[in-house]
Amino acid sequence: MKRRSPFHMAGESFDPALKLGPLKARLLSGPAVEPQGKHGTFALKSSMIAPEFAGLSELSFLNARLIALLRRAEPPAEAAPLFRRLWAEESEHLLTQLDLRWQVSSAMTFADHGIAGPEQTLGASLKMLFGLIKLYEFERLFTGLAPDEPHRFGKRSSAAMPLAMDQYSLNHGGLDLALLAPLYLLAEDAPVLKPLALSLLQALNSEDGTVFRRLSMMKERRAKARNHEENLK
Known about the structure:
It is built from 9 helices and no strands. The protein is mostly helical.
C-alpha cells in the first residue's frame, strides 16, 4: 500500500479538454541525465519515465504519466477521463508509439479506470492474463528451456496437479481457446479499448514463446505420433 500512496502534485494538473493534435506532432526531446524532483513527487516520477519516450510523441509520454498517476491512490479527478479520451481519440497513434510493455500497462489501467461493464471486464481479464503469463514464463526459465522450446513427453512428472485440478488433455483439451476467445467477444462491446486489446491479442497469437504456442506444438507432435502408431497397426 505504501507504493500506492498519492503523489505530491506541486500544483500540476491536467486539462480534460486538452488539444491532443499538437502533442502527437511534438517529439519528446532527450531527458535530463539525472531525475528531476523531490522524493514522492509526480515531477520525479515523470522524469524517471521520460527516458523511455525520448524521440517519441509527447502524447505517448502523457499516456505513461497518466498511467503512473492512476496506479496511485487518490489520483486527480481529471486523470481518468483524460486517459480514456486518449484511447478513444488517438488509439491508432498510440499503438504506433508504445512498446508492448506500455500497451499492457495501458490495458491494465482500464481494469480500474475504464467504464463499468465490458470495458472494465476486458481490462481486468487482460490484466490477469498478461500478469500470469509474466509469472509463469519467468518461473519456467528455471527449467533451462528457452521460451519457444516445448517440453518433451518423456520428461513429464507423475505428480498430481495442484488444487485437485484435472490434467489438461493434449488430445482434446480446449482450455487455451476457451480462455482467449471470450476476450475477442468482449472487445466488440468495448470500442475504446478494442484496438488496444486486439493489438495485444495479436501479439500473443504471433509470439512463439508462450504456453499457448508450446501447447499447440505439443498437440501437433502428439497427433503425428498417434497417426504413426495407427499406420503401423
